[in-house]
Design brief:
Blueprint: E1 8-12, E2 18-25, E3 30-36, E4 39-45, E5 51-58, E6 62-63, H1 67-74, E7 86-96, E8 101-110, E9 113-126, E10 130-139, E11 158-168
Length: 171
């Protein structure tokens, strides 16, 4: 699919978007999966075809289907949502390639700590009024102050998968 995405402002459709994570725990024996239910975002496609934007997650909206674990993830041991209620990904540049992939360069901020992040997304669907981007990335939680690791139970990187649907904002 080779498409040109319309220039202008785009708004994230939270009801049609997902941001999920997976992480190995219990010494790699158990995979914890969760979804952020509070997701917002917007972007702008410029006349040269490049794009910028922001994705914001409500850190306290992470749902792993285990209330006790979710409470712990909101605590100062992990996301510290009382002091850092949002996780943000600021897209500094996004370039659509001929193979319908998008090279994304941005900055991920978790717990007030920002780190550069580069990833390749896939333009899964696009028309004049809507587009869907899919991406997978890995995050080293220790780089963001998420170092709690009782008895060495938590190992490896966190896998994040996204499916983000944007709709065009009428001019």
């Amino acid at each position: 699919m080779t498409v040109a995405v319309e220039t202008g402002l785009w708004q994230l459709d939270a009801s049609a978007s997902t941001v999920a994570l997976q992480h190995k725990t219990m010494w790699g024996l158990v995979t914890v999966k969760g979804t952020f239910t509070g997701v917002a975002g917007q972007g702008e496609v410029r006349s040269d075809g490049s794009a910028v934007g922001t994705l914001t997650l409500d850190a306290s909206s992470l749902d792993t289907k285990n209330a006790k674990r979710d409470t712990h993830l909101r605590s100062a041991d992990f996301f510290d949502t009382d002091h850092h209620p949002e996780i943000t990904f600021a897209v500094r540049s996004a370039e659509l390639r001929q193979d319908s992939t998008v090279q994304v360069v941005g900055q991920l901020t978790v717990r007030g700590i920002s780190r550069p992040q580069t990833l390749v997304a896939r333009l899964a669907q696009a028309d004049a009024d809507a587009l869907t981007l899919e991406a997978e990335l890995t995050v080293d939680r220790a780089q963001f102050g998420l170092g709690w690791n009782q008895l060495g139970m938590i190992k490896g990187l966190t896998a994040v998968t996204t499916r983000l649907r944007f709709t065009r904002v009428p001019a």
